[in-house]
Amino acid sequence: MMTEDILPNRRYRTLAWIAGIVACFMLAGVGAAGAALNYDSRKREVVLPGVSIGGVALGGLDFEEARSRLQEEFARPLLRPLLVEAGGRPFLTTAAHLGASTNALQQFNEAVRFHGGLNPARRIWYRTTQFAGIQDLPVKTSIGEKELSAYIEEIASQVDRAPTDASLSLVEGELKITNGESGFKLDATLAVKELRATILSGGGRIDLSGNVTRPATGLSDIKDVLVVKTGENKLYHYRGADLVKVYGVATGTSRYPTPRGQFKIVNKRFRPTWVNPAKYPGGWGASLPARIGPGPGNPLGTRALDLSVGGIRIHGTYAGSSIGYNASHGCIRMHIKDVEELFGLVDVGTPVLIAQSGPFRNLGSRAPSTPEPTAESDGTAVPGQPAPTQPAPSPSPTA
Questions:
Q1: Higher pLDDT, residue 121 or 266
Q2: Could you tell me which residues are beta bridge partners of residue 234?
Q3: Which residues are catalytic?
Q4: Regarding beta strands 332-335 and 174-178, do their DSSP bridges make them parallel or antiparallel, or are they unpaired?
Q5: Residue 220: its pLDDT value, please?
């Protein structure tokens, strides 16, 4: 009887033990699953291991920290100052101002959506195996082409300039030579490409390309300069800014004043022929011959330098008593020896500055009793003979 009672008890205890083991396993599984789900819930706002965007590792970071790191790495550089130089002038801007933007946060949101769409088991598997399920997502920077082109046009409007030639002026009676300046023209097409490349590379400075245009006349091109002061009745010969010599001259009267301004020598005439400028009977010069050839009686002397203003020239005169006075019909007279010396020193193209430096000095009672033949108003083109390579001898009295 005792034996029979024990066996059922033993059988019961065995079944109970097995059931307990199964229950324990079931409870352990439920607990593990609950723990896993709890773990996944706690890690929901944490980037999965192995995730990187644009080469920036984000695994293990919470979402806000990951976004902050991407902002620092890709967005903030677009707000940093960008120094743009063009034509020697600096300009400050930012890539963001030029319409540049990055897709780093968009890529991050894509990664978040990808992992958020996974079932918990797979996410847990990714976390425990350290495998993210996606590779590095590339980051691209885009640039607003309209903004970029508009910015280059704005810069070009400020830096493009035409070259300026070296210039001459009289300041308080003294010759002043101002150096010319080179011009600059921005190469807009190339500048857009250069600026875009700088932004994409993350550079902070760019010197935009352009074309430098040199002035037609620079400081080194100004050799001889003649300055005529009509009230003072003197001609100053400069070599560059250095005074070479001062000559006494005669200039125009108040009725026929020597024109003031800046001109240049356009023709050199050796032993010139004078042509009468009279255009109608009774006009000035009507009583003089139609032409006077080279020789002692020629009103132009032995040399003449035609200026770039009608009928006005620097020439010699045999009426030496007029030098130092306002006695001509507009031309600049010189002693024969002086004009011959100057003739050999200056070339066609030499600038001539004429200014009034004092009141007119009339010849008055010193005028010759017989009026000399004058040619100051002669506007007829007379090419004459070319200037010789060697100084020519003075004409003989019988020439």
A1: 266
A2: 229, 248
A3: 315, 331
A4: unpaired
A5: 85
